[in-house]
Design a protein that fits this description.
The chain is of the alpha+beta class. It has helices spanning 3-7, 13-16, 39-55, 110-124; strands at 23-26, 29-32, 62-65, 70-73, 76-78, 82-86, 100-104, 128-133, 138-145, 148-155, 162-163, 169-170. It has one domain: tt1808, chain A. The longest helix has 17 residues, at 39-55.
Length: 178
C-alpha cells in the first residue's frame, strides 16, 4: 500500500451526497467541479446538445442530457458535460452506461478527461466518447470496438453518424457548433 493510500480518506456515494457544490468522485477521491465553465465552453456545449437533441427527435428510447450524475460505483461518480442515454433513468442518478459521452476540455480537466475518464468510460462500455477541444475547434470521436476505444475521426466540420439501439441515430453538424 502506498503512502497516499494510507493517509488520504476514501469517500463514497453516501459521503458525496452531503457535499455542497459540484463534485466528482473518482475511486474515492473528491474533485471539485468549480469554477463554472467559461462562456465559450457553455456556448459550445449548448450548440452540440442542440444538434444532438434535434437528431434524436425521432428516437423514442434515447435522450440527450446536460450534466447529470453518472454513478459508476460506490466510490466513483462522474458528471459528463453531455450524455446520450437510451433507456429510462429511474434513480436520481444514472446507474448504467450511457451510449455517448461528451467531455469539453478545459485547462483544469484536460488530463483527467483524456486519461482517467477515458479509461472509466471505456471500462463501463460507453459506445461513443467525444473529446471536444475548443481551442483547436476539433472533436475527437472514439468508438468502442472489442472493448477498447478506437479513434474514428478528428472533426472540425461536417457530419458524423452515431448509431444506437433500435435504429436510433444522431447526425450532428459539427461545423454548426463552432
Amino acid at each position: 500500500m502506498g503512502y497516499a493510500q494510507k493517509i488520504l480518506p476514501h469517500y463514497t456515494y453516501d459521503d458525496w451526497l452531503h457535499w455542497e457544490g459540484r463534485w466528482e468522485l473518482i475511486e474515492g477521491i473528491p474533485i471539485a467541479m468549480s469554477p463554472m465553465p467559461v462562456p465559450k465552453h457553455q456556448r459550445i456545449a449548448a450548440a452540440l446538445r442542440m444538434e444532438i437533441g434535434i437528431s434524436l427527435k425521432r428516437c423514442k428510447h434515447c435522450r440527450v442530457y446536460d450534466p447529470i450524475d453518472f454513478k459508476v460505483s460506490e466510490d466513483t461518480i462522474l458528471q459528463p458535460d453531455i450524455i446520450v442515454v437510451c433507456g429510462e433513468i429511474t434513480k436520481p442518478y444514472l446507474d448504467f452506461p450511457p451510449k455517448l459521452v461528451v467531455e469539453i476540455l478545459s485547462p483544469s480537466t484536460a488530463l483527467r478527461d483524456r486519461h482517467t475518464k477515458f479509461e472509466i468510460y471505456q471500462q463501463q462500455g460507453v459506445k461513443y466518447y467525444l473529446i471536444v477541444d475548443t481551442d483547436k475547434k476539433a472533436i475527437e470521436i472514439y468508438e468502442l470496438t472489442d472493448n477498447a476505444y478506437q479513434l474514428q475521426s478528428v472533426n472540425s466540420e461536417g457530419l458524423f453518424e452515431f448509431l444506437f439501439e433500435d435504429d436510433c441515430k444522431i447526425l450532428p453538424d459539427i461545423k454548426a457548433i463552432w
